[in-house]
Design brief:
The chain is mainly alpha-helical. The protein is about 75% helix and about 5% strand. It has a domain of about 50 residues. Strand 1 and strand 2 form a beta hairpin.
């Protein structure tokens, strides 16, 4: 923190030299304390503002969670041509019957299998490129043979 203090001695008028020294000390004290108060006030206001934001955000999230839970627990929804269903039953029905998550183990195995095949293909391509590169560096492939391999 840097404080710039300017004292205009023409504003201080006194007959006694001791009074001038005291007046200068008082002015310096006043200037320093007012600058410190301003800086501290700004810092405190920022800390309080940040704390308020955190508390309000947490309360809002808690209230939203409670409202959603209450709505899901106690509300009904009209689904298609059927009569009204509780939202809990509707969500369970949609999740079980109308989604591809009915058999999550199979879906995960399929995705892992596809990913593993893709990694093997990438590895094979990188390995083949390294073999061709090494053969070219050693002069074992001429340009015609290299073009045939690329095609």
């Amino acid at each position: 923190m840097e404080l710039n203090i300017v004292i205009d001695l023409s504003d201080i008028y006194t007959e006694d030299e001791k009074d001038v020294k005291q007046a200068i000390k008082d002015e310096i004290y006043y200037q320093v304390s007012s600058e410190v108060k301003k800086t501290v006030k700004i810092d405190i206001e920022k800390i309080v503002s940040d704390a308020k934001k955190i508390v309000v955000k947490e309360l809002a999230e808690l209230n939203i969670q409670e409202l959603v839970k209450e709505c899901v627990d106690n509300s009904d929804i009209k689904y298609g041509h059927r009569e009204q269903l509780p939202i809990k039953e509707y969500i369970a029905y949609e999740f079980k019957e109308n989604s591809h998550f009915r058999d999550p183990k199979r879906i995960i195995e399929d995705k892992v299998g596809k990913y593993a095949k893709e990694l093997r293909d990438r590895y094979d391509l990188v390995f083949a490129a390294q073999v061709v590169n090494k053969l070219s560096e050693q002069g074992l492939l001429n340009d015609d043979e290299l073009k045939k391999l690329i095609q």
